[in-house]
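Give me structure tokens for this 350-residue protein.
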Amino acid sequence: MFTFQVFSKLEGAFTAGMIHLGDRLGLYRALAAADSPMTSVQLAGEVGLEERWVREWLANQAAARLIEHDASEAADRFSLSGEGRAVLASPEHPAFGMGMFHRLPATMGALELMPEAFASGMGHDYDSHGPEGAEGIERSFEPWNKANLIRKVLPAMSGVVDRLTEGATVVDVGCGAGGAVLLMAESFPNSTFVGYDISQHALERAQIKLAESGLANARFADPRHDPLPANGSVDIVTTFDCIHDMAHPQPVIEAIRAAVADDGHWLLVDIRAADTLAGNIEANPMAALLYGVSVLSCMSSALSEPGGAGLGTLGLPASKAEEMARAAGFTRFETLDVQHAMNAFYEIRP
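Here you go.
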């Protein structure tokens, strides 16, 4: 049984690779668009691939119970359930889950770097995952944000929507490919937005998306060359799933406090975590996944500079976030009533 448990993890790894291929090759999209279950011949013809490869891929997906398998006719037929369409084939759906699988090869490629990292203590930043890493992060978070940021998250904060509507100065620290910045900039044309990130791959994507949007009230910058203002001139600061990735999060939080006005707001979104390993294992069914992601990505980024804090994916529970915020000079810390499978949402004020 222990052997079975071990190899069930290996099965998950191989099936994750097949999910990456299904997304990359358009197989899920073709299944989702079909009016009725498809044979391997039909699916291969639809996407322009060799049938024998498609048939074996379908066998994996059916065995993993990710796609529906109908063996009642002469030929096996396959389809996606409604839930399967949402998670595997609908980028506009908030439950769309292909972002992490998009960047799976880049993430797993970091395994080659890990022996030296374990020996030296030094990790690798997000740009070590290449452009696909940045795009994968973008695809991971934008579907949920598009469905909920404007409609649910910002209204949960005290008076923030009114300020944005009237015209506010907004900074998004760790903006990635800029999805949240552009979404807010479009929704609140009287406000101005600046997204900061140190990932060159992410900033390149953000600049392209900004040009495509035609928005004039947003821009993007690398804080190492164009730092946050330190004069209390910012009304609202946002950080989405990035503080735990930072090599030096406390100085960043101090920079946020210096930037934000005395009547301003900081929206901190980060991975929901318990204070202890035992608490995470007990409360989070994906704890093993998140600790693994941490080694290959989040904690690695957080240890990519000398003296890195190394918080890691589950390294910023509410108690730690509040402690760091108060140490930087913030005095009010509130957990927002926003439901999310993975994240916690905090409104922090001076």
